[in-house]
Amino acid sequence: MNRLRLFSVAALLLALVVACGCTPKKTVKVDPMQDSVTMGLDYQDFAGAADAMINDMLASGAVDRPGGGRYVLAISRVTNDTMQRIDTDQLTKKIRVALLRSGKVVTTTAIGLGGPEDPMAAEVRKLRKSKEVNQGTVARKGQIVAPDLSLSGKIIQRNYRVDSETQQVDYYFMLSLTDVNTGLAIWESEKPISKQGTSRSVSW
């Protein structure tokens, strides 16, 4: 009798699962370049903002070094002033790659705000007194190149109620390129992105 009752309960639970469609969904790949499906910032937003700012910077001539050669760029502070936990490197990394490929700018990872991005340049210099290391292969003094330019910026979010059922979220990507020798901004750009959705949608 107990077995029959147990079997009946199991069958009932199985029927309920099938009826409510509680079967696990398959994992699928998403094309990040398709239209955005979220009120928050996604890959497409960062890619679009970065592409627009890269094209504007290159077209402005701000990174055309007189006499040729490449500028050395340091990444300063890019502030996230949105309601989301985002990594601003999503924006700056794409810009850095494009500038490097342009042949006009190279980024230093040995010098940065709050310390180097890659501490290895400093670490290898600690080998200068090591008897285990061929001193002829250790980086010499005075070889790290100081930056010519600094890239800084901010990402801002503003939420608005359009009507009782619709909200709009505006994002502003803002960047400044500064000549560290003079302290003057030689290029600045702003890229706005606006999204509308239901008032129940969240942007974080």
From TrEMBL:
Name of the protein: Penicillin-binding protein activator LpoB
Origin: domain of life: Bacteria
Coiled-coil zones: none
Gene3D superfamilies named among the record's database cross-references: ABC-type transport auxiliary lipoprotein component (3.40.50.10610)
Extent of the signal sequence: 1-21
Keywords: Signal
Organism: Oceanidesulfovibrio marinus
InterPro entries: LpoB
